[in-house]
Structures
1.
Amino acid sequence: MTANITIIGSLWFDVSDGQDMAAMASAGTLDLTAFDHMAFPLEKANDALEQAALRTGGFANVVVTPGI
């Protein structure tokens, strides 16, 4: 049996909008200082999901990064 869990990363924009934003961030023309960045190592992925669920508003960027 499976838990049948689905995780959706974002519903704010389509793929081309995301690509445009990534290009702007890379070029330095997109101000990302409004985001609260939180990075978790892979072994703390469950903690990252809990942190994302606790978000009370504003912009939060919860990232699971293998190798940190």
2.
Amino acid sequence: MQLLSMHLETYRKAKKITYWHDLQLRAAEQWDERIREEMESADILIMLLSPAYLGSDYIVDKEIPLALKHAAKIPATKTVAWVLVKPCRYEIFPEIAAYTVYPLKAAAPGETAARQRAVSEGPEEPDRIWTRLVSEILEK
């Protein structure tokens, strides 16, 4: 999250975007309501896939269904970007596996999407990967 935030800051400082993430929640804030409001008001949802993310009941029961609801509308009401940040078996969720998951480049020729390299394990420097991903997502 920290590396992504640093790359989003470039766009925020250039007044191209505003962004929010759950680390901005304050003590005693109604966090469930705030997360839902922020997701509903966003134009782009960047969903960071990892074992911790997919292991969270809240994320699987609340955030993923909300993101998928908007992505499935025709036309889609939001851009939903799925980013594989740590190796995990996201493909066991067919509703996620149906979408493009970044980074797009497989680990080696002939590898399947199931062995797609996560941002954290790519051969490139993480900043280079995040620069490319943020550009692809925000400049569509």
3.
Amino acid sequence: MTPRRLATTSPAASPPRPCSNCPRNWRRLPPSRGGGAAGRLSPGQVGKWLALLIEKVASRYGVTISSKFAAQAVPVIGAVTGATINALFTDFYQDMARGHFTVKRLEHKYGFEQIKSEYAQLMGKPLAG
């Protein structure tokens, strides 16, 4: 089976074409017409959908891409996305841990009640408990 090639066109040379496989108002589809289907796709279906999306975006920018290459790019895109999300979560929880253990160190050094009262004074409201 030979890979399918998309036509190469310059984005400036032709007006944007709507996706031939997509309904005109795809963002406003009710669930009865498949609007909520994205969460119910199997991993294989998601891979095929992403490969089609990559092909459509590439053709929009005038790049010729084969179906095989688009399908091979799906795991790479997933890996980059996963690494980015992991880095964001790691950074967030490192900041939270740094703050938590700074407060714990201060509580150990000066006592829980004093740190609690100083925090309440900084925030401008009394704390319960």
